[in-house]
Amino acid sequence: MSANKINPDLQRERDNCTFNVTELTNLLDGGPQKTEERKQREDVVLKEGIHTEPVPAIYLSHKDKYELAVKKSCALFQMIRRLQEEENAGMENYQALLGGTLGTAIFGDGNPLALHYVMFIPTIMGQGTVEQQAYWIGRAFNLSIIGTYAQTELGHGTFIRGLETTATYDPRTKEFVLHSPTLTAYKWWPGGLAHTANYCVVMAQLYTQGKCHGIHPFIVQLRDEETHMPLPGIKVGEIGAKLGMNGTNNGFLGLENVRIPRDHMLMKNSQVLEDGTYVKAPSSKLAYGTMMFVRVMLVNDMCNYMAKAVTIATRYSAIRRQSQPKPDEPEPQILDYVTQQHKLLVGIAAVHAFKLNADWIWNMYNNVTAELESGDLERLPELHALSCCLKAVVTADAAECVERCRLACGGHGYMLSSNLPLTYGLVTAACTYEGENTVLLLQTARYLVKAWQQAAAGGGAPPTLQHVAPAPRRNPPWENSVRGIVDGFHTVAAGKIGLCVAQIEKRQKSGMSYEDAWNMTSIQLASASEAHCRAIILATYLKETEQLVKGVSAELRLVLLQLVDLYVLYWALQRIGDLLRFTSISERDIEQLQSWYELTLSKLRRNAVGLVDAFDIRDEILNSTLGAYDGNAYERLMAEAMKSPLNAAPVNDSFHKYLKPFMQGKL
Amino acid sequence: MSANKINPDLQRERDNCTFNVTELTNLLDGGPQKTEERKQREDVVLKEGIHTEPVPAIYLSHKDKYELAVKKSCALFQMIRRLQEEENAGMENYQALLGGTLGTAIFGDGNPLALHYVMFIPTIMGQGTVEQQAYWIGRAFNLSIIGTYAQTELGHGTFIRGLETTATYDPRTKEFVLHSPTLTAYKWWPGGLAHTANYCVVMAQLYTQGKCHGIHPFIVQLRDEETHMPLPGIKVGEIGAKLGMNGTNNGFLGLENVRIPRDHMLMKNSQVLEDGTYVKAPSSKLAYGTMMFVRVMLVNDMCNYMAKAVTIATRYSAIRRQSQPKPDEPEPQILDYVTQQHKLLVGIAAVHAFKLNADWIWNMYNNVTAELESGDLERLPELHALSCCLKAVVTADAAECVERCRLACGGHGYMLSSNLPLTYGLVTAACTYEGENTVLLLQTARYLVKAWQQAAAGGGAPPTLQHVAPAPRRNPPWENSVRGIVDGFHTVAAGKIGLCVAQIEKRQKSGMSYEDAWNMTSIQLASASEAHCRAIILATYLKETEQLVKGVSAELRLVLLQLVDLYVLYWALQRIGDLLRFTSISERDIEQLQSWYELTLSKLRRNAVGLVDAFDIRDEILNSTLGAYDGNAYERLMAEAMKSPLNAAPVNDSFHKYLKPFMQGKL
Questions:
Q1: Cα–Cα distance measured from residue A532 to residue A28, given in angstroms and rounded to the nearest whole number
Q2: ipTM of this predicted complex?
Q3: How close does chain A come to B573, measured CA to CA in Å?
Q4: Domain presence at residue B12
């Protein structure tokens, strides 16, 4: 299998591409220089060979997988330290390796040191005093200590107020006593907690002077720095095998009256004075910051995973041939089937849509954070509501997209060597962590209902909620265009929120409490929240693309606008019921949209491979037998199969041990 | 953790159940005696302890997983042999262990001997002559030989005519020469092929007297019966790790001019005479039989997996508490959230719906098979079309249901110990094997379009297609009832097929070939096929339940009819767009359906646990920390975590080997 021999079907696709692939790659990276920097970083990191595995990790035992992940982690961060010293670089290397595709290329299934960088250090920086930062950050950065962040408990996840772990201040010794009063109070899930970290930020209910003041962060030492043995009162271990992320070393932690010094409480916001006096933080809303940051970053991560999945499935669909619809012709590439285009092209469009939405909300996040610093909290609820529904919708869509890509590869997508199952494992995890999706949709719904009621009482609506305003059902003439559809989605969202408000009021009038009426209406509320998010995603995608294409070649502009068409049409056809209920769209309009959608698929067909090539995911990062750049999927499937330790011997020991005695009736 | 201590939340659910759980269990089993027999079989099999694992298989390496699966297989079939001798039993034990939940309880993730029983022996029985049966079946049944069935190739799956493996008759030696002309011709996927089987039915293109006669079955010896070494010309091994089913030992097989005697071709249907003359089978349609049988059986399997998933998620939802919607009350059980009921109860209803549909098509299959024996092929195409779309819709729905149940358990559903990820792996595999789902939907569509055109030309429609008849768009007054909705689904199906036919004709008139017009319309065709299947599933569920409830208590009748309501309402609300397009349903009707759906959820809420208890899946079979009968999910999560080999030592070796030197800068 030579790296230069490109599968001729794939080569023909590339020859037929109508736009300049590099132009699109540069656009996605943020300019040619950014592309160059990314490629250089990939070169530097990958030439170390840390990502290579003598025996692929998928064949190892759970324990061996962890040990390999530790080995790789140490080698990787050792290398970053060296690079930082050599290049005097900023945080880009950390970001690329912890958040980007490069990191997943090296770890495949999770990294036991990730939370040290992604949660432990940032929490100390965000919530520690200047003195605390001075004490801890240096030790954490040069890895004298390894930390993690423990919030979720066995019995409590998304509902943070329900956490049971307590931190009780003892003014006599000036210590906090950390304690897990029940089994359900055990911390459960934190990455690296099981056998890797020796320190931990523990979120616990603070008690002082006989009163509970809610959840606060405490630094707890878990293990002896020399021997790594768990300290007295610390019950720590791993939670067991999972659907994915088996390299992350997720752990549990029980605390039995563990004492820590007073200054191990992170006190940038709230404080406990020596005598036990509690001093409240100026605003309790400041704590939202990290959570929103993580959700906003997640949208970007999801784009990366989706880009991987559609790259794999699209290239495979160009080289896989099947069936014989026309008797005298060879079997077509499966990419020629319109049902296959339907499965893949919307995924490609979604990557673009989500990427532009990620950039947009990232800007908004930075603006709102800047306003926060100057004491202006006004847009915080809007951003919070947006980050909730966007996280929920994007993670759910991404999981569906990856799984659809896997199924679009038929049986071969079921092979771990396709890398689609592992990618799904990483993506679907995001549907339940950092806030369970249904809970998040309902949080946004709460904001939408409030905004609706405020608008009904005569107040104005914030910018992203202009469509949320009670009015007589608006049925302007339907316009069968992309812009018309986007407007239609806004009308749908408004209609759904309005219906929910009416329904809740009706139920209250019939004697239900507000809470019961809310619960009874919650399926519709989640749906309204999703509709609101869809409208924003579509509108942002359209608006940002229209801006973006001003600076690109005519060939690329055409394709980028076709992708917008495709995405908007796809969602219109998915939500025909909503459009029929809340707008004046007609059956004739629908049939036209359907034909337009099918036509757009056939226009984009010839650029499908070019579009995924433009994501520019190197083979080492894609790590897929089906999706490699050269398209030699069958050769790679066979080559990967031969790496299975089961194939090392022609006859497995179990034949002599079990099978033969059994066949001979001697077992 | 005492087996008797039931979680009080779960006990209260059981106390509040309004119907007799045993009555429903008996109904589902087919009578109290069947329940008794099932329980006895479970007792006998489980008391052997073959299902228990010193270290849970999820922690083992890929190779160790296989060796454990062989060990278990041998122990299991050894036991069955003993039981058969002791009890002089029929095939029930084999059926229960190969098709039912009992088998998956023992193997968890696949069984390397399954294809020996499910495909190798049945193929010889179905396609071998009496002499061939006499020679092979006995040896296969007493396990003197172990076989499998190899059809799919690396480059060819669902499209069987495209298979490349050749079997060329050599009249001089009276042998067939089996050969894989290319890498893509390698057999790929057969269970047990890698290291377990020593014989195999190979499907190959038959060449004799210079002519190709299409795919035929040949028995090929793969390995020496004594040493198990692969025979000359046989390239055999395993295909590598997969998303699931890692105990099945899926293999590849390349053949290099391997010679087999003439009588190793299975010749019940077609024959090759000694001189090489080819004698054709009376009907080529006979070969459909096995494929349809497998698809029909699959529907039943899916019910079992769904029943497991909803049992786990429902019991967990009764003991999990979260949030505090009302300030002064404790955190509610998550089962009290209407969004949670929405996720779970439709799954419970779907088990009932699919079970009744499975019984219905099983009867139809038996009738059509009986007609076939007497030479009547008339209903074969109808059954084939039904089995295709039903397989596609049921497997897709089942996968979605299992995944929804997993996500409804939040993060804990991601733990392998919940058994939801493994269950998903087994279910989603069925979406691509035995015919890829989109391809199957389009096969049914081909039949529907033909039936529509025949009806348009004045012919009648077969019973399951009464609604397929071109007529002016029928808009009878909408009736907002379960029956009205079911009728509406028939109208939708007819409308969609009609639109497809019109669209294809329009495209042909604009100059497209029929094949291109078909392809261009294929998204709509697949959707029409799905709509047709939905109509049949809903109608069958309603009709069969109405029959069934005649013989049950008033309490149970009420609940079974509520489940039908729920399921039909759920699908109506999922398909509002279709109903609005093709029927005269109004906005007011829709709002009523929504309220009715929400009301039905709240009615069924108190019986949710009773309904899953009635599936009567023993803890050993459920094999889930979250779903056990006693509801002690947290205790079980912790107990299972402690079985991880990583938890055997407080400090992992990797600390001394990698982490400590790294932290001290000495790596």
A1: 26
A2: 0.96
A3: 9
A4: no
